[in-house]
Specification:
The protein is of the alpha+beta class and about 270 residues long. Helix content is about 10%, strand content about 25%. The strands form three sheets. A five-stranded antiparallel β-sheet has the order 4-3-2-8-9. The longest helix has 13 residues. The two termini are about 30 Å apart. This is RNA ligase 1. Keywords: ATP-binding, Ligase, Nucleotide-binding, RNA repair.
Length: about 270
């Protein structure tokens, strides 16, 4: 989906991004100054500081559907960790968050990020972004093993995952908040080939419309995300030490400066 947000991000909730959700201010209202996170079963992540060292760290939303006893224990745990708010740090060897950890390198403090090219809004770019540039932001994890992989990234043999900062994309032709207009926009507009929209209101409220609210299907065969070409910007020559041969950063470095017609066309030289 697409997304729109103001600078910074609150840790309480995480909303979806371009590939999943479109974020836009409500008509006539000011843009939200802080992004909020809406976690409803997807695989989200956010960068916060970890420990006294101040090293940027990727935290993942802890989504659970426990029984009553487990839920009580979990609430007690959160109470004892008042600042975590249900976020857990993504450790390198944690199998539960292996796809999260595949898009971050703590040694070099970088992450694999998908966003618009700075010089060409019609072009997507995959690059290694310093974690320090992502502090206090929330992001969306997409890829082979996430939510049915609606963007056709990678394969089971060679999984591919990326992070998208929430608010990295915005809608240009926004529909009105009327049922028929929304339905027509999702069904007939090129930009409407997304999962949903979130409007940010000046009072902090969020107005969320999902394709399912209108009786429309998701995932869909041809998403708006896959209508744009994408270029790889992965120059890692500035890093003194070599990357692990099996990591995504190394694979992307082998196709640096290559351009693909769509995200699903990306083939890594594994």
């Amino acid at each position: 989906m697409l997304s729109w947000r103001g600078p910074g991000a609150v840790r309480k909730r995480a909303f979806h991004s371009y590939c999943l959700w479109t974020h836009h201010e409500a008509p006539g209202l000011g843009a939200a100054e802080n992004a909020v996170c809406v976690c409803d079963g997807g695989e989200r992540g956010a960068f916060h500081q970890k420990g006294a060292s101040g090293q940027p760290y990727l935290w993942a939303r802890l989504d659970r559907k426990p029984n009553k006893l487990a839920e009580k224990r979990f609430k007690n745990f959160l109470h004892s960790k008042q600042n975590s708010k249900g976020w857990v740090p993504v450790e390198k060897n944690n199998k539960q968050y292996c796809w999260h950890s595949s898009v971050v390198n703590y040694e070099f403090e970088i992450a694999l990020v998908l966003r618009h090219h700075s010089d060409d809004p019609g072009l997507l770019e995959i690059s290694a972004v310093p974690l320090s540039d992502l502090l206090e932001q929330t992001l969306e994890l997409i890829g082979t093993n996430i939510n049915g992989n609606p963007y056709g990234l990678g394969s089971k043999k060679h999984p591919l995952h990326l992070l998208i900062p929430h608010g990295a994309f915005q809608i240009r032709n926004l529909p009105t908040l009327k049922h028929n207009d929304l339905l027509s926009w999702f069904e007939g507009c090129r930009e409407g080939k997304i999962e949903g929209i979130v409007w940010h209101c000046s009072d902090g409220c969020l107005i969320k419309v999902h394709r399912h609210h209108l009786g429309l299907c998701w995932p869909i065969p041809d998403t708006y995300m896959n209508s744009k070409p994408v270029i790889i910007n992965m120059n890692l020559n500035n890093y003194v030490y070599a990357f692990d041969a099996k990591c995504l950063f190394n694979h992307f470095s082998k196709i640096d400066n290559q351009k693909f017609g769509r995200l699903k066309d990306i083939i890594l030289n594994v």
